[in-house]
Write a structure and sequence with these properties.
This protein has 221 residues and is mostly helical. It contains nine helices and no strands. It has one domain.
Length: 221
């Protein structure tokens, strides 16, 4: 794991992991909400995006897909992918060549769809999710872990926990993921001391704890 990273590179690797996980998790939730709009509750999409503190409007399930993925709001997938692409370009030297190529392919796919007039469907989302799975696979295929790999993994896990808590899912899962976060923290910053948490604590307390750990590692790297 002998690899020297600047604070800027470490931060970009971390945020690359976060944005890619956020895109993947959002697309999965969008498909789930799409199914609910058709079969159970036409307001399922609005309820989902309210948890992201975003108000969206749509007339039917098909319009929900287009609005949720490419609407004018902070969760626009193409905009998020633009951030991920920028992070990847800045830290290009530390990314697997094929993974970087897949990042560019995913970015081009979303950019083209966002700029075109066709309405997206679940097949399009499946295509995007498949590319994301390829990127994760390409990033983790080497058995030996480098420091850069840990920062990407850290970003993925932090976003997974943040996303899970925003959706107000069970805290138990988030605490399990935090155990893995703590394992990576102990590798990257062996002298850092942090408190553990349990399910009695608030979502805010858990998220503040995570952010404190990340600031200690990424900012001070």
């Amino acid at each position: 794991m002998e690899q020297l990273l600047t604070a800027n590179v470490a931060s970009n690797l971390y945020w690359f992991g976060r944005y890619l996980e956020r895109i993947e998790a959002t697309l999965i939730e969008v498909v789930n909400a799409f199914d609910k709009i058709i079969d159970i509750d036409k307001d399922a999409g609005k309820i989902l995006y309210q948890k992201f503190e975003i108000d969206i409007e749509y007339k039917n399930a098909k319009e929900f897909l287009d609005t949720s993925v490419f609407g004018e709001h902070d969760a626009n997938i193409n905009v998020l992918m633009g951030y991920a692409r920028e992070n990847a370009i800045i830290s290009r030297t530390y990314l697997d060549t094929e993974a970087f190529g897949s990042v560019i392919e995913l970015s081009d796919l979303l950019k083209h769809a966002d700029n075109s007039s066709f309405w997206i469907d679940c097949n399009f989302i499946d295509q995007a999710l498949s590319l994301i799975s390829e990127i994760w696979g390409e990033l983790t295929r080497n058995q030996e872990r480098n420091t850069s790999d840990y920062f990407i993994r850290l970003g993925k896990l932090v976003e997974k926990t943040d996303f899970h808590l925003r959706l107000e899912r069970d805290k138990g899962f988030s605490l399990v993921v935090m155990d893995e976060i703590d394992t990576i923290v102990s590798i990257l910053a062996p002298d850092a001391q942090f408190n553990t948490h349990d399910e009695r604590e608030t979502y805010e307390a858990i998220l503040n704890s995570i952010n404190g750990k990340i600031d200690k590692i990424v900012v001070e790297q």
